[in-house]
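Bench notes, afternoon.
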Amino acid sequence: MMFDFTKLWDKLYLFGPNPLEMSRSDWGLLWLAGGFVLIGIGAKILAVSAATNSPRKVLGNRFFHLFATVGFFLLLWAGARFENIPWISTHLTALLLLILWLVWFSFIAKYFFFGFRSQTKQWEEEERKRKYLNLGKK
């Protein structure tokens, strides 16, 4: 299946009026929204299973908030699209949500590549110190 990105520059596609039936791209965005929500739930499960104050917990929570929030809003958009609610159901709204996701994801990627590893190393050293300090108290 090949995506047609030329529709993104079409005013009629972005601003409507939308046809009464959901198009193939609308169903694709609905499935994407469902996938985002599932990824968000998986990220939350990983964050809960991580140790307290761990950078992995922070990263997992950031991914949870990213995917769950944008996925939820895309599901709301798909519901509005299905019900043909004006302005909310335009493809421009979905495009803006995906741009928001991309910007938010870039900040998380920046954290991952430039701060996560050093924080993980520092946290592991602190845990090692706590382990030996608590071992001597017994």
